[in-house]
Amino acid sequence: MLPFLLAVVALLLTAAGLYIRSRHRFWSDRGIPCAPNPEFLFGHVRGQVTNKHAAYVNRELYQQFKARGEGFGGYSFFAVPAVIIVDPELVKTILVRDFAVFHDRGIYNNPKDDPLSGQLFLLEGLQWKILRQMLTPTFTSGRMKAMFGTIMDVAEEFRQFLVDSRERESVIEMKEVLASFTTDVIGTCAFGIECNTLKNPDSDFLKYGKKVFEQRMSTLFKFIFASLFKDLARKLGVKITDAGVEKFFLGLVRETVEFREKNNVMRNDFMNLLLQLKNKGRLVDQLDEADEVAARGLTMEELAAQCFVFFIAGYETSSTTMNFCLYELAKNPDIQEKLREDIEEAVASNGGRVTYDLVMGLHYLDNVVNETLRKYPPIESLNRVPTSDYTVPGTKHVLPKQTMITIPIYALHHDPDFYLDPDNFDPDRFLPEAAQARHPYAFIPFGEGPRNCIGMRFGLMQTKIGLITLLRNFRFSPSAKTPDKIAFDVKSFVLSPDGGNYLRYDKIRFIMALLELYLAIGVTLVLATAGCVFLFLDKKRSFWKDRNFPCTGRAKMIYGDYKNMNQTEHMQYINQRIYNEFKARKLPIGGTVLFLVPSTVVVDPDLIKAMLVKDFNFFHDRGVYNNPEVDPLTGHLFSLEGQAWRQLRAKLSPTFTSGKMKMMFSTILNVADDLKEFLWEKTESGSTELEMKNVLAGFTTDVIGSCAFGIECNSLRATQCRFREVSRKIFEQSVGQMLWMIVLMLFKGVATKLKLKATPAEVENFFTNMVQETIDHRERNNVQRSDFMNILIQMKNSTNLEEKLTLNEITAQSFIFFVAGFETSSTTMVNCLFELAMNPDIQEKLRAEIFKVCGEGDLTYESVSSVEYLNMVIDETLRKHPVVDSLLRTSTQPYNIPNTDLKIPKGTFVFIPVHALHHDPDYYPDPDRFDPERFNAENRASRHPFVYLPFGEGPRNCIGMRFGLMQTRVGLITVLRNFRVRPSSNTPERLVVNPKSGIPAPLGGIPLLIERI
């Protein structure tokens, strides 16, 4: 019998050995790049949990694959084949673009036998989706504001505790103290219980909280077994949660729920929200929904599981982040002082009150916290598993279903290609320009995509409140026991310091001294105001002279080089004169002063190309004031800057494809039929003089109204149209309005803090109400239309975060769609008809080609786009009468003009004078003559491509160019197929631009004779 048992054991050991070896060959057998030489038992993770933290193990793997130029690579997690991701673009693909394949973490959960594992972090598939939908409303900014006062109360107790402790000792171990603070916060916000762990360090909350994060080898191997053989583990009833932890949290939750329901207790905390979900399936201020989410409430076990994960996610991660942050601030006193001053200035300007909006609006604190999370991410890596076989984009490699995917956050955050000198603590890495220069998925402390950290807002709020409380009252410095470099606790799956963090802390008397300083500064400023204003104006006037930068040299004290602008002269003519002057001096660029704003006018088309395309990273912003938080209509694509613009451009680009244009084509044709019918009625008795500027403005208003809002404006016939009235307020600017815009642009930072608005209230109210009513009507009545609004509503309701739009974003885009599509297209058409009336031979040639290509039947998208001579006529119209006289850019960093010694300072306005370029006789001989042949293939090829810029160029060109050209072509074809246009006795000999118009629109009307063909 014994020999038989020994043989069986030997056979089982042999089989196990062969199995393990086959698992180690898993990736090499499939031709997938992998780490070499796995150890028999440990694979590639030897030392993990014993003497090396997983952060370092994964970083070594990451560096190994990156050095080989791989975007990902296979390795063995003990005996489990796994993949580590290196390429941040692939990280983005997994977390967002292909989220449908990677929505599960692959972590073992068994709510039946292990109730506390039925929490949002662990659940998979539909169970996760339903629970996420239920819980998402509990973490809105509104809910956070409701809990803000509760956290502030705990912070005050925390402050008093430290004040009392300071009387006894000057050095304190911050790890334990901060753990007590977050425990008290979570205990209060999640359970409504005053834990008071600061004074009672033996609290059960602390005891079991620490137990959760202790990672024993036996628990680790049980966890690996359960994750590897989930179905078997569930059948065997395997539990990962410690029995003591489970008993404590289930008992605590049950007692709390029973007490509240029995005594009808209501509190502004997380438990109260969960009770609403338990009893109603929704929060009391949510609308009723007849879906699976509202069909059932949370069970007691589900409620307990969410309280449990709320505790573990908010307790250790936030306390650890604050601990690491204070360590770095103690080691970097200059950063600590800068942050403290920034906090105190903000509090003083807020009347001495610390409010939710103030806490969340401290940008330097954001930078410090972000840099802490970069250097010490609480979760060192993200895990995902594909729910089906997955082909890695750009390769033929297939990752099998349920493969363990590791996204190494710590390694990404310490990659010197993304963060130079990654071990250095530098909050300026998170200044807007620095953050924009990096791949966005090289910083993911909270994950990304639909499965990012749901409690991110709460975690950041309690972290910031804790840090503000500490830094306003104490100064921190290293003690004799402070380590030079923090070592990580290898047994904790959260990145946590090994041992204590002993810091010296001293009370500070800062606020009164700061207030006294402000008072003294204020008196000084009042006395010096007159002199400062004069010096300021003079400094701006001589800005370029002082820098030996070529300029006009004629700038006046207030107007600069732009006197009479918006009064008697349009800006395009001023810029044309400046352009001609600089070109005569053979300068590629020259300095000007726009009122108080040092600006430049670019002359050389090669330099224009460099700015718009090659060096776009220096000139991606327009410098136009925007403040979407208080002025929602400024949050549109034309005004936004940096990452906000990039993200919105990426979202909106698919809405302007040729396919989407074809979808709206029939809507435009319907409005064109109304235009034809209107003109037909007006010419019933023969040739009739019509003011075509108003007629074509009515046409484009109806097009935009129909395509953007699904509204039949009928402005062709209506004597009064609300759309038209509002548009006049947008495009006709008084000198006061123009100066206000310049002030906002010049002092953007101050204007943003003061919450100043650029949009007139009447305009904002009109568009906000219009969009809200349109969306409400369509969603309530399930209205579907082939228009722009329908596309935006789809994006609003999308589950894909990369394309999702908020209501304010939709309103802003609808506003700019109207602004950009209404006046520009109508002005182009009226300018074109004026030129055709003055050049009948060109008109007849164009009409003949229209009939040849389009015939007399129905127009199609393809036929309209194929009238080549019409394209030439429109191009010549846009050359002679560009609807945007200049392109505006601002330098986001100092810029050296190529092949010169000249440098443009950061923040300088750059004008690219489109009108001046289009009227330069070196490029367009006899520029005032209307000649469509300038745009035949031969002539076009002979010119520099960047001397024709009606829609801009480069990544920030006009996104709506296709739509604008489509409605312009349809409008002109409709008129010219049915009518002949001629000058009348009232038609001006040449067009004069309205100096008060935001775009170069004709002054007064454009009367033309219209007659049927």
From TrEMBL:
User: Nucleotide-binding as a keyword?
Assistant: no
Which GO molecular-function terms appear in the entry?
heme binding; iron ion binding; monooxygenase activity; oxidoreductase activity, acting on paired donors, with incorporation or reduction of molecular oxygen
This protein's GO cellular component annotations are:
endoplasmic reticulum membrane
Q: Which cofactor does it need?
A: heme
Recorded topology in the membrane: Peripheral membrane protein
Alphabetical list of InterPro entries matching this protein: Cyt_P450, Cyt_P450_CS, Cyt_P450_E_grp-I, Cyt_P450_sf, Insect_CytP450_Detox
Major subcellular site: endoplasmic reticulum
| Pfam families registered for this protein in UniProt | p450
What are the TM regions of this chain, as residue ranges?
none
Top-level taxon of the source organism: Eukaryota
In its UniProt entry, what is this protein called? Uncharacterized protein
| Organism of provenance | Aedes aegypti
Taxonomy, top ranks, is:
Eukaryota, Metazoa, Ecdysozoa, Arthropoda, Hexapoda
